[in-house]
Amino acid sequence: MKKKALITGITGFAGSHLAELLLKKGFVVYGTTRPRSKTENIDQIKNKLNLYDADLLDSHSLYSVMVKVKPDFIFHLAAQSFVPTSWASPAHTLETNIIGTVHLFEAVRTAEIEPVIQIACSSEEYGLVYEKEIPVKENNPLRPLSPYAVSKVAMDYLGYQYHQSYGMKIVRTRAFNHTGPRRGDVFVCSNFAKQIALIEKGNQPATILVGNLSTKRDFTDVRDVVRAYLLSVQKCQPGEVYNISSGKTWEIKEILEILLGLAKVKIKIKQESKRLRPSDVPILLGDSTKFRKETGWQPRIPIKQSLKDLLNYWREKV
After folding, report:
1. What is the distance between the alpha carbons of residues 149 and 172, in angstroms, rounded to a whole number?
2. Within this chain, do residues 71 and 49 fall inside the same structural domain, yes or no?
3. Cβ contact 245:289 at 8 Å
4. Residues paired with residue 308 on neighbouring β-strands, in sequence order
């Protein structure tokens, strides 16, 4: 019997890559979408997927999906996932990410099924990290610095609480930054790549607009991250939390330099004040030893390849 996997947020960046991986591995793949979901990320595999209309904020729609599908695995990736949007819409971010997760867990409980559930938490939960705490381990204090990060802390602890209270098989993963083709253009690497593609096409002056270039981030290719998500439901301990990270940081300035090195034209750099955040996490570097020991996972795709694939994705799009 083929195993059934359900992905919330299947039309998103990580969701679409995870769907491709699961199909390759022989799973029957289900996904939740909303009428306003853009499906371009999954257009190439749509005919192989089983899609259901469901909204995280409509508990009955989630319950209906659970009863119909009875998945063996659930990958909970749907979220309001952009940090700056959480400053503009904090209540919406908290509602989607916290109440939406409660609705999902309750739907599983009410349907009386026992899937292994992976919840995509975030390295943003660590927030303010002190120099002596780097690289960050799972037991590091959480000092969230944005409404998005607060929402992910709550979601993370709900996963722990539902495991403790009801014995639900919930694995919590805290992925550090990930990038690659299909990344939304609001995210830094993708935003740079899109601007370069537009400049090459003559649709933008030869100046790239940037925000804070001094922050340091731990980047992993999305295709490596979704491999980690699959391993997490196969090999990790329910109730536990796991960092997923490359273990190396890149200054945003270095990311920009790699992309500019791939550009076909000469480009100037200009900082724009509206691209700066009220507070920024200076460095995020993850220690994923715990996850690697339990699963044998290693990232395979180097950052330069991720950025090249991302730039080529935008060249095709624009």
Report:
1. 15
2. yes
3. no
4. none
112 and 79 share one domain: yes
Please tell me the distance from the alpha carbon of residue 137 to that of residue 147, in angstroms, as a whole number: 22
pLDDT digits (tens, 9 = 90+) for 22-35: 999 999 999 999 98
Residue 249 is which amino acid? Answer: T
Distance of alpha carbon 179 from alpha carbon 190, whole angstroms: 8
- Cα 93 to Cα 96, 99, 150, distances in angstroms: 5, 10, 10
What is the rounded distance in angstroms from the CA atom of residue 177 to the CA atom of residue 289?
17
- Three-state SS for 172? strand
Find, among 179, 165, 168, 222, the residue nearest to 311 by Cα.
179
We report the CATH number of the domain holding residue 205 as 3.90.25.10
What is the tally of structural domains in the chain? 2
Domain with 8, as residue range(s), is 4-179+220-247+287-295
pTM value? 0.96
The model's pLDDT over 64-123, given as tens digits with 9 standing for 90+, comes to 999 999 999 999 999 998 887 899 999 999 999 999 999 999 999 999 999 999 999 999
Is 80 found in the same domain as 69? yes
Distance in angstroms (rounded) separating the CA atoms of residues 289 and 268: 40
107 and 10 share a domain?
yes
Shared domain for 79 and 112, answered yes or no, is: yes
Nearest C-alpha neighbor of 218 from the set 171, 281, 270: 281
Distance CA 24, CA 13 (A): 18
